[in-house]
Hints:
- This protein is an alpha/beta fold.
- Helix content is about 35%, strand content about 30%.
- The protein is built from 9 helices and 18 strands.
- The protein has helices at about 10, 15-25, 40-50, 70-95, 140-150, 175-185, 210-215, 220-235, 250-255; strands at about 1-5, 30-35, 55, 65, 100, 110-115, 115-120, 125-130, 135-140, 155-160, 160, 170, 190-195, 200, 205, 205-210, 240-245, 265.
- The strands form 6 sheets. An 8-stranded mixed beta sheet has the order 5-10-2-1-13-17-18-16, with helices on both faces.
- Helix 6 (about 175-185) packs parallel to helix 8 (about 220-235).
- The longest helix is centred in the N-terminal third of the chain and has 25 residues, at about 70-95.
- The model has no long low-confidence stretch (mean pLDDT about 90).
Amino acid sequence: MIVIKMGGSILKEGASSSLIADLAEITKQHQVVLVHGGGVEVTEIASKLGKEQKFVMSPEGFRSRYTDKETIEIYTMVMAGKLNKQIVLALQNQNINAVGLSGLDASLLRAERKLKLIVVDERGRKKVIDGGYTGKITQVNTTFLTLLLEQGYIPVVTPIALSQDHEPLNVDGDRTAAIVAGALKADKLIMLTDVEGLILNGECIKKISSTEVKEVLPKIGGGMSTKIHAGLEALNQGVNEVIVTMGTTNQPLTSALNYKVGTVIKNE
C-alpha cells in the first residue's frame, strides 16, 4: 500500500496529465490513498472574497495559516469543494475509480482542537494567541479506508478534520498524509513537491537514514522541514520508507518507486 501526498505547489497549475497517467499505472499494482494540499489557492480565493489571510510562525520555525471562523469556511469550500473534486475528475478521466473525501466524511479524521497557539511575532518574541480552527489529528477511520481500498476505490483525502465538538478543523496536509500512512501501516509514503528532493549543500540527497536526517534538520528550510518532520512521524508509526520527490517530472511516481529520483528516508 502506498500513501501519496500531492502538494499544493503541484496543484497550482493543475495536476499534470503525466502525473495522473502515472498514478493510473501505479494503481494497477498497488492500493493507493491520495492526500492533497492546496493552500496557495485557498489564499488566492480568500483574497478575492475580501478575506486576507494571516500566517503565523511557531517557535520551531513552522509557518502556518491562522484559521478563524470565516477562514475555515473558505478553506473547506476551496479544498473539499473545488480542489478535491478537480482531482477526482482528473482521475476518473483516466478510469481510476476515485472517491473524494474530507476528514468529516465517516469521521475519517478526528482531531483535537488547539485552544491556544504559541507564535513568534515580527520582533521575535513569543506570544500566546487563540487557537482558532486548527487541530491535531488523534484518530483515523482505517476501517472505512480499508473498505474502500478492498473494493477497488482510490480515496482522495482533503486535510480537514472533525473536532470533538463536531467542527471542521484545518490540519496540516503533510502530517495528515503521514498519520494516514502510519495508521494504515503503508509500505511507502511518497511526498510530491516542487523540488527534486532534500537538498543539502546544493545537492539532492538520494538516501538518508532517519537518524542522519534528524542531525541536519537545522539546515533545512521551513517548507521542506515540515515534510521531513512528517516523514519521520510516518516512519515512527511503522511506514517502511518515505520518498520526497518532484511531482512535475515525467512519471514522477514510477521513477520514485524505482529509486531514480527523489530522496529516500528509512529507519536504519
